[in-house]
């Protein structure tokens, strides 16, 4: 597993970091392959979240503004599933968070009750306010 070195006092460090002289080494659960030139990362700790290749749509609304729909994500934990009435109807969703810094990111669609919304099942919403573009963006 690859490691990233961050200086002591860097934002978002927590107890899972390993101390070494003058720095804390943080190990993320997963790094996206180098072929994924354009990636999205957590704005707070820079853990990889998704490859641009996994982006389905930029036309979603989260609780804090614009959000993107992704086919798959990494370094994300999932909470308990619950039924919510969203703009597009009733869905079973589970909140998702960054596994590294525990920041809430959005939600995962577990089940869509309306047939026109079934394409969302198993997909992830990440709010734009919680992610940053990394690597190869011009």
What is the alpha-carbon Rg in Å? 16 Å
Number of strands: 12
Q: Roughly how many Å apart are the termini?
A: 29 Å
Summarize the main sheet. 6 strands, antiparallel
The total of helices stands at 0
Net shape = globular
- Along the chain, the helix and strand elements come as EEEEEEEEEEEE
- What do the pLDDT scores average to? 81
Amount of helix: under 10%
Taking strands numbered 1, 2, ... along the chain, how are they ordered across the largest sheet?
6-7-11-10-9-8
Strand content: over 45%
Query: What structural class results from the helix and strand content?
Result: mainly beta
Parts with pLDDT < 50 across at least 5 consecutive residues: 1-20
